[in-house]
């Protein structure tokens, strides 16, 4: 009895201290054919699923340490302006793992075992199911539903590079990094100084290298394998260990399990195509979408004058985006909107007639909407703002609630507002009817469908779904509702709405993305350079059609440093945008502080910042974009069929070129146009790295051999761009641009 007691004690101490996975019996070496080309391989040290035709593993599970850990964690969110901070308290953790059995069937592998720790014990099950020889679905379930946080560890390789993860703005490759996944405001500065420190000091809103409106827990690797998690709770990915990947999901029990898909492919392109076949693809853009979209506001007289000015300069204007169609509201942040979704007849008398007058000039009109309803501002003495839509939504119970069951009042930038509850079918129908009547019914050809990332972590929703896991799904539903309203109105393919917040499956609903509110700066984390990274990363995870505000948006007046848009920044941003699907301007949140693409003098004598030279140069750059219309159209059509992005990361087009990966501000438009935009101030000569093959400089016609660095002149109006000699689209690009090369 004493021996047995000592043995049990020794075993208990071993369980508490051991770091490897335990099994009642040793795991034998065995190979099992799950399918014709998939093998399950197990040894005492490792479990893995292998595709034999590609000779690559879908997944590798080390047995030298637990590959599953679960905990019960209490999390409290601090919420301010859609920037989230979390306080965590761990109650208990199951850090020891045993494998009790491995069941092997044709098409399916099931691992059963236990997870244990102090005051913690639960059964678990991991299932891998083959859907094809290149696709495996996985599911992890934990029996104890009070354990709400899980960590899953699987193998990686030291040289394996990680790409994608939704729309990221600082990094375009993630080996060694620790990104998190929670849709929120991207932050003001995101590490660029001194603005980030100031934004954090005043509002905790500076952001960091991983804050983004549109993350997706999906990536591809340089070894042509892809991983996608279906879950929508807060997540962390840890790629800091060269030999393994750690993935952590919060509140996964609200979704009953951890589920996802593993793919092996022949190339990055094949993996993107497979991923988007599952999650959705963007529709083709209407023909009018390929010209200049002028983002102007201020009333019918002003916008009409500016459209004429641009057209007279030879600018191919095909759309007018007037975000203040619903009314202007001036706050301490700048020029904002009334957030009541009907035409403001004081700014735009007889709005429907105004829209038709623009249409008669072959200019489509776009507006603005979000899922908030604004309220009177109690901080503004004598605020006479009213919102009948808010009154109706309150009366009918269409708003998101707080923990007390009251309508959840949210302090936004400038004024308080309430969110529509998109889990309430009646609220959804009401919202779609509003869109069909007040936007489509007025003749609008599209709109910015803004926000989506502001749902509070502790909100209470009509359907009963936990806001912790619905938070990331809210912007997906917001896009779906806009798309359904268009379909129900019989306008599919004719109307374009563009969203900034998103998550997995947003690409099944949105017709276009834009990158949100970058600073009006050259800052690498939140200025012009970051907009390029946002384009290239997002395209890997399904956002095939994306663009940014030309010139940026966020404008700050500060005693330490003003962030006001300069002429140089505006035109350099335009040059970059000329090689993206959509070419759209924005005045920014403080229009009178920013250099604009137009000149305009108000009746009171107030002048906008801008000059005739800018009007002419901007028209010149706009003609580059418009000349590329046939090529961009072909890429948009390809995107609708395959999910391949229009703007492409270097790793998609030239995956073998390791040097090219160091040039993260270069990108490809399709496969055959290499773009190296100027992203630093006062630069007139640009260093460009050319990959394999031959490349013709667009402006001079000089052809260069690849695999080398070159220096090219880069005056404003002639952005560095190179045509791939022998590319399948070479002649299309040459013919498209020949007409403007001499003219420009």
From TrEMBL:
> What GO molecular function annotation could you give as one example from this UniProt entry?
alpha-1,4-glucosidase activity
- Keyword match NADP: no
Boundaries of each Glycosyl hydrolase family 31 C-terminal domain copy? 643-726
GO terms for biological process? carbohydrate metabolic process
Q: Name one Pfam family in it.
A: Glyco_hydro_31_3rd
Enzyme nomenclature, EC number: 3.2.1.20
Looking up NCBIfam families in the UniProt record yields: PRK10426.1
Give the protein name, as stated in the record.
Alpha-glucosidase
């Amino acid at each position: 009895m004493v021996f047995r007691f000592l043995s049990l004690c020794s075993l208990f101490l071993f369980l508490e201290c051991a770091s490897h996975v335990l099994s009642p019996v040793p795991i034998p070496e065995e190979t099992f054919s799950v399918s014709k080309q998939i093998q399950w391989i197990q040894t005492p040290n490792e479990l893995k699923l292998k595709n034999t035709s590609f000779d690559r593993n879908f997944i590798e599970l080390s047995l030298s340490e637990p590959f599953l850990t679960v905990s019960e964690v209490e999390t409290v969110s601090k919420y301010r302006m859609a920037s989230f901070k979390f306080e965590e308290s761990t109650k208990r953790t199951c850090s020891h793992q045993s494998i009790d059995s491995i069941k092997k069937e044709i098409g399916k592998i099931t691992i059963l075992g236990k997870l244990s720790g102090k005051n913690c014990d639960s059964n678990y099950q991991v299932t891998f199911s083959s859907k094809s020889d290149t696709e495996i679905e996985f599911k992890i379930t934990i029996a104890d539903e009070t354990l709400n946080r899980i960590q899953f560890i699987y193998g990686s390789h030291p040289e394996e590079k990680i790409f994608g993860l939704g729309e990221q703005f600082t990094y375009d490759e993630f080996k060694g990094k620790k990104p998190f996944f929670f849709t929120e405001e991207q932050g003001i500065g995101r590490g660029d100084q001194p603005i980030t420190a100031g934004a954090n000091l005043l509002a905790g809103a500076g952001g960091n290298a991983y804050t983004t409106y549109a993350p997706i827990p999906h990536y591809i690797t340089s070894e042509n394998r892809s991983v996608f998690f279906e879950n929508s709770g807060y997540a962390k990915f840890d790629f800091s260990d060269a030999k393994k990947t750690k993935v952590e999901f919060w509140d996964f029990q609200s979704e009953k399990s951890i589920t996802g898909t593993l793919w092996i492919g022949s190339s990055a392109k094949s993996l993107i195509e497979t991923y988007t076949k599952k999650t959705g693809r963007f529709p083709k853009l209407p023909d009018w979408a390929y010209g200049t979209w002028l983002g102007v506001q201020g009333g019918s007289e002003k916008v009409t004058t500016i459209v004429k000015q641009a057209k007279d300069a030879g600018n191919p204007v095909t759309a007018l985006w007037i975000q203040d169609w619903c009314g202007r509201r001036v706050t301490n942040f700048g020029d904002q909107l009334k957030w009541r979704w009907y035409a403001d007849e004081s700014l735009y008398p007889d709005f429907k007639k105004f829209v038709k007058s623009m249409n008669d000039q072959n200019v489509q009109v776009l507006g603005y909407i979000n899922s908030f309803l604004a309220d009177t501002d109690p901080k503004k003495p004598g605020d006479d703002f009213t919102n009948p839509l808010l009154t109706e939504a309150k009366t009918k119970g269409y708003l998101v609630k707080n923990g007390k069951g009251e309508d959840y009042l949210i302090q936004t930038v400038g004024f308080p507002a309430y969110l529509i509850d998109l889990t309430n079918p009646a609220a959804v129908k009401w919202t779609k009817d509003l869109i069909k009547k007040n936007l489509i019914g007025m003749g609008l050809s599209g709109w910015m469908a803004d926000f989506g990332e502001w749902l509070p972590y502790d909100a209470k929703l009509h359907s009963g779904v936990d806001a912790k896991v619905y938070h990331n799904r809210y912007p997906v539903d917001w896009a779906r509702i806009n798309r359904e309203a268009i379909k129900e109105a019989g306008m599919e393919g004719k109307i374009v709405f563009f969203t900034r917040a998103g998550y997995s499956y947003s690409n099944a609903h949105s017709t276009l993305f834009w990158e949100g509110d970058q600073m009006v700066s050259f800052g690498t984390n939140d200025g012009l350079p970051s907009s390029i990274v946002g384009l290239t990363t997002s395209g890997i995870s399904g956002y095939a059609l994306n663009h940014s505000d030309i010139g940026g948006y966020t404008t700050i007046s500060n005693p330490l440093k003003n962030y006001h848009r300069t002429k140089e920044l505006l035109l350099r941003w335009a040059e970059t945008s000329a090689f993206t699907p959509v070419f759209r301007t924005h005045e920014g949140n403080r229009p009178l502080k920013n250099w604009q693409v137009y000149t305009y003098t108000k009746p009171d004598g107030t002048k906008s910042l801008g000059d005739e030279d800018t009007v002419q140069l901007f028209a010149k750059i706009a003609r580059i974009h418009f000349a590329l219309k046939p090529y961009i159209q072909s890429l948009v059509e390809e995107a609708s069929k395959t999910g391949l992005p229009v703007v492409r990361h270097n790793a998609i087009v030239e995956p073998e070129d390791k040097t090219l990966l160091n040039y993260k501000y270069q990108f490809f438009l399709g496969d055959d146009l290499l773009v190296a935009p100027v992203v630093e101030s006062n630069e007139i000569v640009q260093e460009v790295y050319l990959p394999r093959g031959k490349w013709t400089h667009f402006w001079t016609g000089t052809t260069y051999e690849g695999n080398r660095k070159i220096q090219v002149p880069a005056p404003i109006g002639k952005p560095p761009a190179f045509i791939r000699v022998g590319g399948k689209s070479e002649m299309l690009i040459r013919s498209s641009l020949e007409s403007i090369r001499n003219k420009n």
